[in-house]
Amino acid sequence: MDRKLPTNQEIQRLILISAAARSCLETEAHALKQRLDVPARIRGSLREHPTGWLVGSLISGMAASLLFRSKPSRALTGLSGSPSPRRPLPVVLMGLALTVIRPLAKVWLTDQVKQRLAGMLTSVPPTISPEVSPQAPYSSEYPPYV
């Protein structure tokens, strides 16, 4: 029992199958583009987790500086030829914290100065008009000083 479809119905069936396959391929291509777009994924991750990226960069920077540390030069050694004593970890962390805080403090201080100057410029002291002034210097009521 061979099932033969008329050509119009077979063509319609093939058109529907190709449309379904095309839509499936489009969604898969779009998903693949999103997965392979690394710069956009990194930007999104930076926007979502900025503190994690900052902490990770600080830790990786410290690890890299410890791994790639070179031998101290002669100028850094003391008079006796032995290297100078290492700074304790809290001192190093305090220096790192101050290094991170300094740009933030500079921006904050600049904003404070701008606000103060803007407040000083907008609040002009009231001036006394010559008509209300008790002694107008150029009024005709008083004789000029000679």
Q: Provide the low-confidence segments as ranges.
A: none
Distance between the termini: 134 Å
Number of helices: 4
Strand fraction equals: under 5%
Rg, Cα atoms, Å: 39 Å
State the helicity in percent bands: 55-70%
Rounded average pLDDT: 78
Oligomer: single chain
Number of strands: 0
The biggest beta sheet reads: none
Overall form: elongated
Helix-strand topology string: HHHH
What is the SS-derived class?
mainly alpha
SSE topology sketch:
Blueprint: H1 7-36, H2 38-48, H3 50-67, H4 89-122
What's the quick description here?
With 146 residues, the protein is mainly alpha-helical. It has helices spanning 7-36, 38-48, 50-67, 89-122.
What can you see in these coordinates?
- By secondary structure, this protein is mainly alpha-helical.
- Among the domains are: 9-54; 89-119.
- It is built from four helices and no strands.
- It has helices at 7-36, 38-48, 50-67, 89-122.
- The longest helix has 34 residues, at 89-122.
- It is elongated, with a radius of gyration of 39 Å.
- The mean pLDDT is 78.
